[in-house]
Amino acid sequence: MIETVVTFLNSLLWGKLLVYALVGVGIYFTISLLFIQFTHLKHSAKVMISSRQADDAGLSSFQVFCTSLAARVGAGNMAGVAVAIGAAGPGAVFWMWLIAMLGMATAMVESTLAQVYKVKDSEGQYRGGPAYYMEKGLGQRWMGVLFSIFLIISFGLVFNAVQANTIAGAVNKVFDISPNVVGILLVVFSALVISGGLRKVAKVSEYVVPVMAIVYIGMALVIVLMNLERLPQVFSLVIKSAFGWQEAAAGGVAYTIAQAMQSGIARGLFSNEAGMGSAANVAASAAPNPPHPASQGFVQMAGVFVDTLVICTATAAIILLSDDWGSSSDGIAMTISALEFHVGGWGGWFVAGAILLFCFTSIIANYSYAETNVVFLLGNRKKVILLFRLVVLAMVMFGSLAKISLVWDLADLSMGFMALVNIIALVLLSGVAFKVIADYRDQLSAGVTPTFDKSRFPELNQQIDNEVWNPATAEVAEPRS
């Protein structure tokens, strides 16, 4: 019964509504921002790499990038890409690319808004995200409450179950270790990190994420070089499958295209999170450098690019360059099988290790997103946070043992509702975002370091926290290393 209802709602959300909404707002933001994801991609990388400073209230831009990438790079990049290819063929990869390119503009808008409307909590730490800009920017706390509930369910609970499920499946397949044992170990190590809150999550992510990403991309690059002569054939296969050209002779082209679009966009969003509103929660926690809200938009644009156009593509290349990419409906089994095809038996060990790191960092980063929304709903109360941490750890254990198809379906459903609420808010607040981003670009073009001056935005005077953005200089606090 539950599976039937979940399947029906997913088909409604992902079959039509969210596909059109995500592509629509992506095109709208891309055009309105004058294709910023292409014209300022180099600048976004520069902001991300050069911003290693934080203050007493916030994280550094680099820590925010690593934390958001920790959440993005997980089951969606490895198992999710394989699931999409297995369900809809290689064409799903093309639609992942497309939604990522459009999603970069969406990430720019939502993370800029998260910075504009962020606040300081009772402990002097920056908090923000969609729930906060819905309350402060739109004056609709009920909308923020709804978003927070969906995010807590999806990221704090369901998505962490998905990540734990993926880890348990990979470790069990490669090392034959019981999911019960894996679940207990995950709970212990997750508890050690999330007990330190957002700062400890960011610190762990800052060191682990760059290493794991570089190693995984390096492995994919080696495999591509080993199969360089087949690369044009694989690229052609992706394009033909995306538009149904392969199936034209057999009929059913429209269905094939729709299936590839639905699967690619769903898995693409699950992976890069653009438009979902999730990464905006940690983007708000940054002490931006340069001191302007739009700087975090550039950082999150870089995150979407690295996640989907680099890491997801790496997984797709590993799978499609093997000979049996359509042989399994189990995403992680397909990825392991593909890597073993290329490098032999130790490939399974490599995938298991990569999955362990990717999905574990996703668990702790997902928790940090959910914590911010628990604070939005109930305040920064220690007993509430402790209880929530225990519930999150219980879901990690549950995910290690759960039926994977239902877990994935619940993840899609909760993510869909969350994205829908956020998309509405983004469209309603897009004028504010466009003006703030234009202010940044004007200063950048004039050759000065962009600095946010609240006096240039009188319409925001009653909405922006004075403790966060000082009217004259907008400097947050003296930076520290």
UniProtKB/TrEMBL annotation:
Pfam families: Na_Ala_symp
Cellular localisation: Cell inner membrane; Cell membrane
Domain of life: Bacteria
Keyword Nucleotide-binding: no
InterPro entries: Na/Ala_symport
Membrane topology field: Multi-pass membrane protein
Membrane-traversing stretches: 17-36, 78-100, 142-162, 174-195, 207-228, 298-321, 341-365, 386-408, 414-434
Record keywords: Cell inner membrane, Cell membrane, Membrane, Symport, Transmembrane, Transmembrane helix, Transport
Family under the similarity heading: Belongs to the alanine or glycine:cation symporter (AGCS) (TC 2.A.25) family.
NCBIfam families (UniProt xref): agcS (TIGR00835)
Protein name: Alanine:cation symporter family protein
